[in-house]
Amino acid sequence: MKAITALLLGAGSRGNFIYGPYAEKYPNDLTFVAVAEPDPHRRAAFATLHGIASEQSFVSWEQALALGKIADAVIVSTQDRMHFEPAMKALELGYHVILEKPMSTLPEECISLEAAASKYGRLLMVSHVLRYSPFWAGIKNVIAEGKIGQITSIQLTENVGHQHMAHSYVRGHWRNTALSSPIILAKSCHDLDLISWLMDQDCTRVSSFGSLMHFREDQAPAGSAARCTDGCSVEKNCPYSAIKIYLETTEPNYARYISNEPTPANILQALKDGPYGRCVYHCDNDVVDHQIVNMEFEDGANATFTLSGFTRHIARTVQIMGTHGEIQGNMEEGCFRTYHFASGQCISHQFDITHDGHGGGDNHFVSSFVDEIRRFNTAQNSGLTSAAASLQSHLIAFAAEQSRLSGGKPVELSSSFIPLGQ
């Protein structure tokens, strides 16, 4: 069967470490014929690896899409505030589209993208890849089979991990709402999507509380320096030391995100010159470091989502309470247990967690996209994470941020709900 051809917009972490490797591993499924990336090293490296001609390598997405339709699909993996325009243009040109989450940083643009996918009869799949992981798919199946009765409550916790928090949301690309988006949208629309999917009904009301409690200048310990490499007197005992995170931590390998050639010398230079060497208490970050979101659904069920940057490990844990049973699970352990009230039986479900990212969701997501294109029918196929399926989680995120900024005041969702733009 003919491989699906694709144009990659943004050869950053997702482009280089998810979509590129998938095409290498499954060349009969996906082939890249063009790339747009402003960083010359990343652009050249991706083009070389995938045999892309120089005339098909572009500095910007505008240049790439100016050629018209040159492939079957476009993968938009640019920064958050650069999602809407290229995705909309690609749909207009007749491309099928993978769009990195969030769809947009503005609610009205999310709604417009969902409408455009329908208008142009194209597949627009949002990278809510967790739906495709065996762990979450397994939980969905147990619920669908009625094993725990009707869901009354879901509690989902995202343990961001203290190093990941410092890397991405204090020093990194997603540290500042004006530059990217609120963390509840940038990071946790994944989790809100899972809750929405598992509940399988409309969310009617949202409230939220959270703040930037720790990563602030007034919390800086005495003797701290502007950079970890500036002879900081507390660096060796600081859990957020950039030297520890980028030079001493190998798993996960954060260093590969701050240098195109992450040798010790290059990493150290990046810490001295770039944003990732800054003290976490002396950055320009403003996104919260912890937040809770409360949701009410149309049948009276509710859900609570907790986000925290102050955890040892990166992990998602879940508890789903039903009228006839309960599910408890840990995604990073690849295990959930189903408890049946009537029989007292406990069933363990264990999944392989050694393969690709997001618990296996990344590869399954791309594979599903390829399959959906091959059998595409505008009347039937929209994908598990289509724009229509993903829209509610985005609106919940916008409502949560609106509530948080108002001191936790509940926000009502309705068919006409459009939250305040960020």
User: Roughly what fraction of the amino acids lie in strands?
Assistant: 15-25%
Please bin the fraction of helical residues: 25-40%
Number of helices: 13
The level 1 CATH classification of the largest domain is: Alpha Beta
What is the CATH superfamily classification of the largest domain?
A: Dihydrodipicolinate Reductase, domain 2
Outline: globular
Largest sheet: 9 strands, mixed
CATH architecture call of the largest domain: 2-Layer Sandwich
Task: Return the CATH topology of the largest domain.
Answer: Dihydrodipicolinate Reductase, domain 2
Low-confidence region ranges: none
Strand order of the largest sheet: 14-13-12-11-7-10-9-8-15
SS-based class: alpha/beta
Order of helices and strands: EHEHEHEHEHEHEHHHEHHEEEEEEHHE
Distance between the termini: 44 Å
- From the alpha carbons, calculate the radius of gyration and give it in angstroms: 22 Å
Instruction: Please state the average pLDDT score.
Output: 93
| Total separate domains | 3
Count all strands and give the number.
Answer: 15
InterPro entries: Gfo/Idh/MocA-like_OxRdtase_C, Gfo/Idh/MocA-like_OxRdtase_N, Gfo/Idh/MocA_Oxidoreductases, NAD(P)-bd_dom_sf
Family: Belongs to the Gfo/Idh/MocA family.
GO molecular function: nucleotide binding
Pfam family, one: GFO_IDH_MocA_C
What does it look like?
By secondary structure, this protein is of the alpha/beta class. It has three domains: 4-130, NAD(P)-binding Rossmann-like Domain (Rossmann fold, 3-Layer(aba) Sandwich), CATH 3.40.50; 131-215 and 286-412, Dihydrodipicolinate Reductase, domain 2 (2-Layer Sandwich); 217-277, no CATH class. 32% of the residues lie in helices and 20% in strands. The chain is built from 13 helices and 15 strands. It has helices at 13-25, 40-49, 61-65, 84-93, 107-120, 134-144, 162-170, 183-186, 189-199, 242-248, 264-273, 361-374, 387-405; strands spanning 4-9, 30-36, 57-58, 73-76, 96-99, 124-126, 151-159, 203-211, 290-297, 302-308, 315-322, 325-330, 335-340, 346-350, 411-412. Strand 4, helix 4 (84-93) and strand 5 form a beta-alpha-beta unit. Helix 4 runs parallel beside helix 5, helix 5 (107-120) runs antiparallel to helix 13 and helix 10 packs antiparallel against helix 11 (264-273). The mean pLDDT is 93.
